[in-house]
Amino acid sequence: MRAAQITTWRAPLEIVQMDDPTPPEGGVVLKVLACGVCRSDWHAWVGADPDVALPHVPGHEYCGEIVAVGAGVKSWQVGQRVIAPFILACGRCGDCQSGHQTICATQAVPGFTQAGAYAEYLAVPYADANLTLLPESIAPDLAAGLGCRVTTAWHALTGRAALQAGEWLAVFGGGGVGLSALMLGRALGARVAVVDVVPEKLAYAKRLGADVVINATEGDAAEAVREATGGGADLAIEALGVEATTVGALKSLKKLGRMVQVGMPAGDHAVMPIPMDVVYSGQLAIYGTRGMPAHRYPSLLSLMDAGHVDLAPLVTRRIALSDATRELAAFDHAAPAGVAVITDFES
Fold first, then answer.
1. Which fold has domain 150-288?
2. Which of 50, 51, 292, 314 is the most buried (most CB within 10 A)?
3. Pairing between strand 61-69 and 28-37?
4. Could you tell me the residue ranges of all domains in the chain?
């Protein structure tokens, strides 16, 4: 099969021929239909993720068609189109049985702990515990986001911080997760403020329905959120994983507010100072989140199928596998609005 491989940190991905994967026991092999290019992939590309050893095939936002089924798989067959969360939980341990698959101790993570989906084919373990049938109404390029950016935002809003209709949501970072949080938040009845430093991203967020957009280069973003919301946001989503936005998100909250750390703190930002006096005096709640358990797909898919949210504007660039390096490098700076999805694996 054809795959894009990291062979040197920050170097162009090498397009190589590899053996097609075989299905593990309890798993399947997918023909990859689409794979998103995510900021988390950038962390792998620059060497900031300790799980990644070279050479390595990145890619964790995928959808595909089952082309082979391993021994022991009960629920799936060749020809079905499926999606899966990027955290593939075992489905058997105590955490999984309690519904907390994202903390499974034996989880597999394509693109990080195993070969990922910047490739024509992908082996997916623990199929019965993780796969979800892809509705015919959802195109593969959009479905790729249901492996990470969209599902991560959905779980942050509903599974961790319980966003309520009428609340103010502040989103710090207008990338894929941030835009997902914006659109899902509005679908849930929240008012949304988006903070970023790129005028084009803010303009795009405004077109997608943001009530307020704030350019963090033009002053104190947290103060601007508090002023725009009449005292502070009820919930803040940090969608970049850096100190400036984490601190800003906390300081943007009203008393008794909640903040969810969605962005992945890695490299120089793995440890960061935060204003604990603000947490203490505001009696704030801070949540961490990573991915979404597979059992929460129905609530998101029903929202989409009912027409309450159209996530199609997320995908602004459909690219070839050979273009993936360019998109990864864009994360070194302020990336363009929207997200890129690999849909052509032959060029």
1. Rossmann fold (3.40.50)
2. 292
3. antiparallel
4. 2-148+292-344, 150-288
pLDDT at residue 196, rounded to an integer: 97
**Bridge partners, 169 (sequence order):** 192, 235
Judge contact between 59 and 116, C-beta under 8 A. Answer: yes
- Tokens read off for 204: 């795009």
pLDDT at residue 305, as a whole number:
87
Summarize pLDDT for 177-193 with one digit per residue, the tens: 999 999 999 999 999 99
Name the β-bridge partners of 14.
Answer: 5
DSSP β-bridge partners for residue 170: 193, 236
**The pLDDT of residue 306:** 87
Q: pLDDT at position 267, please?
A: 86
Q: Which pLDDT does position 336 carry in this prediction?
A: 87
State the chain's mean pLDDT as an integer.
96
Query: pTM for this structure?
Result: 0.95
For residue 180, give Cα distances in angstroms to 123, 157, 309.
27, 10, 10
Q: Which residues of the chain have pLDDT under 50?
A: none
Beta strand 315-320 with 339-344 is parallel
Rounded CA separation 291/145 (Å): 12
Does the domain made of 2-148+292-344 have the CATH classification 3.30.70.100? no
Distance between CA atoms of residues 86 and 89, nearest Å:
9
pLDDT, tens only, 34-88: 999 999 999 999 999 999 999 999 999 999 999 999 999 999 999 999 999 999 9
Closest CA to 155 of 305, 291, 306, 294: 291
pLDDT for position 268: 87
